[in-house]
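[Automated response] Your request has been received and processed.

Submitted sequence:
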Amino acid sequence: MTQTNNIKQQQSQRMGELAKIARQRYLESGGLPHRAANGEEWLTEEERQEYLTLARQIFDQASIANYLQKHGTWQERLAVMKQTINSAK
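Generated structure:
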């Protein structure tokens, strides 16, 4: 694994930790377990800023372009899925 990938993996893990913190606070305040927690509401300002900074570092333009080139947009994937379902009928 390259140094860059290792750093991005650590950053991604920290984002996951922040998301878990938001979820726990949401549930402790009486939130519904089957609904997602809104990080805007359940993270402190410092945690929110850290989350956004990490997201910008992990999901830079080059990473996004590479993903789209490999997988396509969600609209393209949805169109293929619909076409597959319709051709199976």
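Summary generated for your ticket: Residues 61-89 form one domain. The chain has a mean pLDDT of 90.
If you did not submit this request, please reply to this message.
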